[in-house]
Amino acid sequence: MENQQARPLVVENISKSLGGKKIIKDLSFSVEAGKIYGFLGPNGSGKTTTIRMIVSLIGLDAGDVKIGGHSIRTEREQALSQIGAIVENPDLYEYMSGRKNLIHFARMTNKKVTTERIDEVIKMVELDHAIDKKVKTYSLGMKQRLGIALSILHEPSVLILDEPTNGLDPKGIRELRSYLKDLAHNSGVAILVSSHLLSEIELMCDRAIVIKEGQVINELAVNDKEQGEEQEVAAVFEVNQLEKAEALLLQYGTVRKEENRIILENTTVEQVPSIVSALVKQEIDIYHVSYKKSLEDTYHLLTEKEVI
């Protein structure tokens, strides 16, 4: 039970073919309670297909998804009761007030939702001032927050959002980011956010899962400092003996060559001095060392390399 609470969403070796083409290939990852994970990948990488499988909008060809310890295959109802999601724009009744939307959706959930819970959620998404107004008068950001309120009424352990900032102005994006951080860090909800806005993921998320061609190619620390984890970087070494340096750097992790440079992925700034010392001991001349710290730089390094 402790592991299920710590990792409320576990995706195990899932696969999916559509139109005779394998879109998702033996894909696995898990998310930790109380943290926000970015879900990143180029167009066509399989992000939306993966999310649709997790929330049971489409079936799995192979593998399993466990939500709160319940299998989506064998305990579908229990599994789905643990998840909240906005996969497309939230379905709202615009002619009704925000409160009436919440009451209506509360009646549709399997779990009893009290009036106190509805009031609690209204405060959480900071819609107190407008909750009794018709939804058609709401801004896009307010509608998005109401959609999130609907998805967390039943107190899920996992919240999944597909491109939640689409159409929001900078103020709306900032408000949504602040709200999601509070929800994860104060309420212990695990949040998976699929987005193409890398700068926003970097500001919002604790970790990022990167997929390409239906496979997870890496998981990166973004702002995950709670366990004393050091910030991951890609270190770039310009040297005179590429082959010799590559052989040495392989001891420290994944490397790739680029002209007269070798890039060591997923190291930390703290490790670099000892790596430089090891290169010098091998009589390898080092002309320059730099870091690709931003998520955008690391993301492009990862997604531009070939998937095997």
UniProtKB/TrEMBL annotation:
Highest taxon in the source lineage: Bacteria
Residue ranges constituting the ABC transporter domain according to the UniProt record: 9-238
UniProtKB keywords: ATP-binding, Nucleotide-binding, Transport
Keyword Ribonucleoprotein annotated: no
InterPro entries on file: AAA+_ATPase, ABC_transporter-like_ATP-bd, ABC_transporter-like_CS, P-loop_NTPase
Keyword match Zinc: no
Pfam families per the UniProt record, alphabetical: ABC_tran
Signal peptide start-end: none
Family: Belongs to the ABC transporter superfamily.
Protein name: ABC transporter ATP-binding protein
Species of the source: Alkalicoccobacillus plakortidis
